[in-house]
Design goal:
It is a single chain. This protein has about 400 residues and is an alpha+beta fold. Helix content is about 30%, strand content about 25%. The protein has helices at about 30-45, 55-70, 75-90, 100-110, 140-145, 165-170, 225-240, 260-265, 315-325, 395-405; strands spanning about 5-10, 100, 115-120, 120-125, 130-135, 150-155, 160, 180-185, 190-195, 200, 205-210, 215-220, 245-250, 275-280, 290, 305, 330, 340-345, 350-360, 375-380. Strands 1, 2, 14, 15, 18 and 19 form a six-stranded antiparallel beta sheet that branches. It has a six-stranded mixed beta sheet with strand order 11-12-13-16-17-20, with helices on both faces. The protein has a four-stranded antiparallel beta sheet with strand order 7-6-8-9, covered by helices on one side. The chain is globular, with a radius of gyration of 23 Å.
């Protein structure tokens, strides 16, 4: 798995942010401001950029803030520096394009490695509101009753109105054994939950056997997904060849995505060599087709796929391409609808930049951004208030298994 310039299809949920605080702990003299201005101008020119902008306003604002702000303890030049960069990147008004400080960039890499501290929920934006894309399995969020689709109206009694995704994540994440209160909106009603943060360790792939059917759950497309997938597939293939199972349920519910290449790798397990998995359309890099380049081990096993509104990005690629090639029936609810590709760039000082570079299109030409994928068989699991889904109440899984045993 590439560590640099990774292309991510979903970076909603697996990054850690800090709130932007502008300030400085000391007073800069006019000479130093002028020197900084010259350095910044020289940098822009050396980078090949052209600008007619006079940066005097920038330094004037810097000075006034650090001279006049009431709480001088909150004035931190490093945060001012990072905050200015964050503001610049945010000006493109794309929630999936953002700058990461060195600390945030490290946390992002840890997330894709399957480890972080927090409540264990993937966050996203829907109609400019902070929403739960998916609570992770057995996480503090899930155990507290948080569900996919919940809207976060408040964090610790502070309204999330007009918050960016970065602000929401920064407030909700935190050290283990600390508490955070969320005010959630569900079915037009508000509920409050208090969650104790813990270290979250995520298995990318889990599998089990129900009756004579294999159930393969993919939680995310991270650093360890392909290795965990290979181990599970080897056991499933063995049981299939020995006629111990009749089929496979691929469960992509509440999977927020991750590496685009991971979705291609998994899709290749079920399709013949050369088949188109996904097409990437980009102005800078040009169009690119991702095709099956390995001999899949599960090309002939009967397959059903589960999706819901927590299935986003890379999981939508996997479900969508297997649908387009008539390889599997989709069961459940309409997926999240994220059709863009982000590139993760490592910058100086350990910082990072995630920038939207392309959109992806399914083999039949669908761009599902903001639309999602509609399953052929629509089933909504009914969950009683305050409870989480149980195996006995999982009508979606039950239907997927029954189709394979008929």
């Amino acid at each position: 798995m590439k560590k640099n310039n990774n292309q991510l299809t979903n970076l909603l949920l697996i990054v850690s942010f800090i709130v932007l605080v502008f300030g400085s702990g000391y007073k800069l003299g006019e000479y130093k401001n002028q020197l900084n201005f010259l350095k910044l101008t020289n940098f822009i020119q050396s980078a090949g950029g052209q600008t007619n902008i006079n940066f005097n306003l920038f330094w004037e604002t810097w000075n006034k803030l650090q001279e006049r702000y009431v709480d001088q303890k909150k004035i931190d030049p490093k945060k001012m520096y990072y905050g200015a960069i964050k503001g610049m990147v945010a000006s493109v008004e794309d929630p999936y394009t953002f700058f990461l400080t060195p600390e945030e960039n490290k946390q992002t890499k840890d997330d894709l490695g399957g480890k972080f501290e927090g409540i264990g929920a993937q966050l996203g934006l829907k109609d400019n509101r902070i929403v739960i894309i998916a609570p992770l399995k057995k996480s503090p969020a899930e155990m507290s009753g948080v569900r996919a689709g919940d809207i976060i109206n408040k964090v610790d009694d502070v309204s999330t109105k007009s918050w960016t995704l970065t602000q929401a994540v920064s407030k909700i994440r935190g050290p283990k054994n600390t508490k955070v209160k969320l005010t959630l909106e569900r079915n037009n009603k508000e509920i409050e939950v208090i969650i104790v943060r813990q270290q979250i360790i995520i298995a990318s792939v889990e599998f089990s056997f129900e009756k004579n059917i294999a159930v393969l759950k993919v939680n995310q497309f991270g650093d360890n997904t392909n290795d965990e997938w290979n181990k599970a597939v080897d056991e499933i293939k063995s049981k299939w060849l020995n006629k111990q199972i009749k089929g496979l349920v691929l469960d992509l519910r509440d999977n927020p995505g991750g590496y685009l290449e991971g979705s291609v790798y998994l899709a290749s397990e079920f399709l013949p060599l050369g088949k188109l998995v996904v097409k990437q359309e980009a102005t800078l890099y040009g169009d690119k087709e991702y095709r099956v380049s390995k001999i899949g081990k599960l090309q002939d096993i009967p397959l059903t796929i589960l999706i819901n509104k927590g299935s986003a990005s890379a999981s939508e690629i996997l479900a969508g391409t297997l649908r387009d090639h008539n390889r599997a029936q989709l069961i459940g609810e309409k997926s999240f609808g994220k059709g863009s590709v982000q590139e993760a760039l490592d910058l100086k000082e350990g910082a990072g930049l995630h920038v939207t570079v392309a959109k992806w299109v399914l083999p039949n030409g669908d761009w599902i951004n903001s639309k999602g994928i509609e399953p052929k068989i629509k089933i909504v699991n009914e969950i009683k208030e305050g409870n989480t889904i149980t195996k006995e109440a999982d009508k979606q899984l039950e239907k997927a298994i029954n189709l394979l045993t008929q």
